[in-house]
């Protein structure tokens, strides 16, 4: 019996394999909620759980060992949202328009802030672009409503504060004709 066969028959290996299978089945059940993943599964014949795990592994690998982490992160933030924004413009429903318009406002504001502090952030935050990619996916997914949450909890109060300050009228100054007795 080879070492590989002995390992496969070891109780710890069997227990780990059963546990992993349970988690993959639970993930597959959760991913069934997304028709796009079911369609991809049917077209590629790759189980959706494995495709998602593989995509996440690829993203993590690219972010960890690749100098192209920033462009990949920006592609995650631009590629699918651009396509879904196009579909939203073409659809008669205004609900998806709000989702993607809010996403682009938050994504743009985030990229604007990032342009000022990127070097500092990269110095202090390891794996910044991996975290950014996860944040961007959170913003994108309608199930989480991340873009709306970020907009209403952060952006809207800031923008309203700036807007209200710009409307403040300076105190009126008295003219010479008002001082004449």
Summarize the structure in words.
- By secondary structure, this protein is an all-alpha fold.
- It has 2 domains: 54 residues, no CATH class; 88 residues, no CATH class.
- 81% of the residues lie in helices and 0% in strands.
- Helix 5 runs parallel beside helix 7, helix 6 packs antiparallel against helix 7 and helix 6 packs across helix 8.
- The longest helix is centred in the middle third of the chain and has 30 residues.
Element layout with pairings:
Elements: H1 3-9, H2 11-31, H3 35-44, H4 48-65, H5 69-90, H6 95-124, H7 128-140, H8 146-166, H9 176-179
Helix pairs in contact: 4-5, 5-6, 5-7, 6-7, 6-8
Q: What's the shape?
A: extended
Radius of gyration: 25 Å
The mean pLDDT is: 84
* Tally of helical segments: 9
Sheet/helix structural class? mainly alpha
Relative strand content: under 5%
- What profile does the largest beta sheet have? none
Order of helices and strands: HHHHHHHHH
List how many beta strands DSSP finds.
0
Membrane topology: Multi-pass membrane protein
Subcellular location: Membrane
Transmembrane segments: 49-72, 101-125
Organism: Coprinopsis marcescibilis (Agaric fungus)
């Amino acid at each position: 019996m080879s070492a590989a066969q002995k390992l496969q028959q070891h109780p710890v290996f069997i227990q780990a394999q059963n546990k992993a299978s349970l988690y993959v089945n639970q993930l597959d059940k959760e991913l069934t909620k997304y028709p796009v993943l079911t369609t991809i599964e049917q077209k590629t014949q790759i189980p959706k759980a494995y495709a998602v795990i593989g995509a996440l592994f690829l993203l993590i690998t690219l972010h960890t060992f690749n100098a192209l982490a920033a462009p990949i992160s920006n592609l995650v933030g631009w590629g699918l949202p651009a396509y879904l924004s196009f579909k939203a413009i073409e659809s008669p429903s205004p609900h998806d328009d709000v989702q993607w318009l809010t996403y682009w406002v938050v994504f743009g504001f985030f990229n604007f802030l990032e342009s000022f502090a990127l070097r500092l952030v990269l110095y202090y935050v390891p794996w910044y672009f991996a975290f950014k990619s996860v944040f961007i996916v959170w913003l994108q997914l309608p199930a989480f409503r991340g873009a709306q949450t970020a907009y209403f909890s952060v952006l809207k109060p800031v923008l309203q504060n700036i807007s209200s300050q710009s409307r403040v009228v300076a105190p009126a100054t008295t003219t010479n004709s008002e001082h004449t007795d």
